[in-house]
Amino acid sequence: MKRHAPATVRNRQPILDVLQQHLPAEGLVLEVASGSGEHAVHFAANLPQLVFQPSDPDHEALASIDAWAETSGLPNIRPAMALDAEAPAWPVERADAVLCCNMIHIAPWAAAVGLVSGAARVLPDHGLLYLYGPFRRDGRHTAPSNEAFDRDLRRRDPAWGIRDLEAVTELAMAEGFTAPEIVGMPANNLSVIFRRS
Question: Where, if anywhere, are coiled coils annotated (predicted)?
Answer without folding.
Answer: none
